TrEMBL record:
Keyword Zinc-finger: no
Keyword Ribosomal protein found: no
Source domain of life: Bacteria
Bilayer-crossing regions: 66-85, 106-125, 137-157
Keywords: Membrane, Signal, Transmembrane, Transmembrane helix
Signal sequence bounds: 1-25
Protein name, per record: DUF2165 domain-containing protein
Length: 163
């Protein structure tokens, strides 16, 4: 096993653990981050500009649906990453072709994680629901950190090997 392969496996496993813990925390402490989703979607701590307030979603059922979708996305991302870690571990001493073929689930998991924080938190929450305007319920900095970590690992893993 080479150092780059070990690095890729370890970093992918760290993100698998990260997404697992986030999903677990959101299930076991549902109310904490549910409040975040509720406030962001309601846009109740933004500048309340009439030009964007029509985007606000104040339905508790929609808040729960969105939060459950986020949790499911996090859990699915974790599952893909753990499958990816297992496949990478199995290919750790194999040929470059076997290694490259084993990366699929991990690359899908990393892409799913990047979409959650890039599209979900920065684009939808940050821009559509104007989360950036809120002092109390602004998760853009954390989302950017999570997105950066995920993208760096995706880039590291996506670099294919040659025989």
């Amino acid at each position: 096993m080479t150092a780059p392969r070990l690095s890729r496996i370890a970093l992918t496993a760290s993100l698998a653990a990260f997404f697992s813990l986030i999903a677990f925390g959101n299930v076991t402490d549902y109310g904490s981050n549910f409040a975040f989703v509720q406030h962001v979607m309601s846009m109740d701590t933004t500048f309340r500009s009439p030009g964007v307030m029509w985007r606000a979603v104040t339905s508790p059922a929609m808040h729960h649906a969105a939060y459950l979708a986020i949790i499911a996305w996090q859990a699915g991302t974790a599952l893909l990453l753990w499958i990816g870690v297992a496949r990478l571990w199995g290919a750790r001493s194999g040929t470059a072709a076997a290694w490259n073929a084993a990366r699929g689930p991990a690359i899908l998991g990393l892409t799913a994680g990047a979409l959650l924080y890039g599209l979900g938190f920065l684009v939808v929450a940050g821009e559509w629901f104007s989360m950036w305007q809120s002092r109390e319920w602004n998760g853009q900095a954390n989302a950017a950190i999570f997105l950066t970590f995920t993208l760096l690992v995706l880039l590291h893993l996506s670099n294919g090997e040659r025989e």
